[in-house]
Amino acid sequence: MRRAIFPGSFDPLTLGHYDIIKRGITLFDELVIAIGINADKKYMFSLEERTKFIKEAFKDEPKIKVVTYEGLTVDFCKKIGADFILRGLRNPADFEFEKAIAHTNRKLSEIETVFLLTSSGKSYISSSIVRDVIRNGGDYTGLVPDTVIVKS
């Protein structure tokens, strides 16, 4: 079985993430959306909310599992038997950052990193931009899946 993880904080899940996940499930038998827990990071959305956003967005996709994890991503891969890490790239800066992590992961283990370019029209979307729009009362509905839209 070709199992991959798509790690991230998903604070919140964006249409960019959604795009990579939908395209990633065509490449793997199982895609584990792995929500990393970092005690030093201040999140806008709780772990429970972030998990719910993702589970609801992919509730009809049997090839997707949503889990949380702490520690090194490569250690988590070993623990669940994943041979691949899926990552999305929006721009050249993402590539340079992700390349360094991929090389480090490869040095620490036999995990392969698979990169997908974000689809045209979604490369400007990031969780930090979405959080800023939300904090400032802007319309973020075109940046996230419907499951993330908080009803007032």
From TrEMBL:
List the residue(s) that the UniProt entry marks as the site Transition state stabilizer: H17
Name the reaction it catalyses.
Answer: (R)-4'-phosphopantetheine + ATP + H(+) = 3'-dephospho-CoA + diphosphate
Annotated GO molecular function terms are: pantetheine-phosphate adenylyltransferase activity
| Location(s), subcellular | Cytoplasm
Main EC class the enzyme belongs to: transferase
Cofactor(s) required for function per UniProt? Mg(2+)
Q: Which residues bind ATP?
A: S9, F10, H17, G88, L89, R90, E98, K122, S123, Y124, I125, S126, S127, S128
Pfam families named in the record: CTP_transf_like (PF01467)
Q: In which pathway does it act?
A: Cofactor biosynthesis; coenzyme A biosynthesis; CoA from (R)-pantothenate: step 4/5
Q: Which positions are annotated as binding substrate?
A: S9, K41, T73, R87
Domain (Cytidyltransferase-like): give its ranges: 5-132
Its Enzyme Commission number(s) read 2.7.7.3
Q: Which UniProt keywords apply?
A: ATP-binding, Coenzyme A biosynthesis, Cytoplasm, Magnesium, Nucleotide-binding, Nucleotidyltransferase, Transferase
Entries under NCBIfam families matching the protein:
coaD_prev_kdtB (TIGR01510), cyt_tran_rel (TIGR00125)
Q: Which family does it belong to?
A: Belongs to the bacterial CoaD family.
Q: Which PANTHER family match?
A: PHOSPHOPANTETHEINE ADENYLYLTRANSFERASE
Briefly, what is this protein's role? Answer: Reversibly transfers an adenylyl group from ATP to 4'-phosphopantetheine, yielding dephospho-CoA (dPCoA) and pyrophosphate.
Assembly notes: Homohexamer.
What name does the UniProt record give this protein? Phosphopantetheine adenylyltransferase
Please name the source species: Flagellimonas marina
Upper classification of the source organism reads: Bacteria, Pseudomonadati, Bacteroidota, Flavobacteriia, Flavobacteriales
* Name of the gene this protein is made from: coaD
